Amino acid sequence: SDFSRVLLVTTHEHIVQQNLRSGVEHVSLADGRPVRLDGPLRRLFGYARIVIRLRKLIKRMRPNIVCAFRVKYAFIALLACLGLQTTVVGAERGSPQHLSTFWWRFSKIVYRRCDGVVFQLEAVRQLYPHVVSRSTVIPNPSISPGERKRICAQDRAPVISSALARWDALKGIDTLLRAFHMILRHHPSYSLWLFG
Fold first, then answer.
1. Tens of pLDDT, residues 129-158
2. Which residues contact residue 99 at a Cβ distance below 8 angstroms, ignoring those fewer than 6 apart?
3. Considering the entire predicted model, what is its pTM?
4. For a designed S-S bond to 135, which of 27, 39, 117, 181 qualifies (C-beta 3.0 to 4.6 A apart)?
């Protein structure tokens, strides 16, 4: 299989801020018309438009694998790939404790239908016993305790870089901003860089 080309597909009309590596292309499914999700009927038609656009893109590009982050997008990917014999991998990077009862139960059905699932934590993986054999854990990178000892506050620039996350209330960026405001009182030279 050739994995030299990657399509980063988004459902919103926004510009990817990062410089993408060679072989990585950003494609937006937005068609200029906002997908209105206020109300069950509009939500249904909005998601149907996304599924149809994604299916057209998958038919045209014929990817080896479609990897969808979070249960809602894994479900959209599964619908878009029906009958296309395209491998669908779900990626659950959050905690199901934040899901409503409906989405928690629905996530068990959706991930069971995926060809594979990637989890961020082993503890979350264990909450989905029906997919353990077709799943893996890819944790966020961290600094080992030995590395932490070598990093000294005096040896680094006064920059706190944080919130490498999507802009979502679930991520608590508002809490981070309030906390950083308190830090600024004691360390006015510090700056906060947010990436999302």
1. 999 999 999 887 665 555 555 555 555 565
2. 71, 107
3. 0.69
4. 117
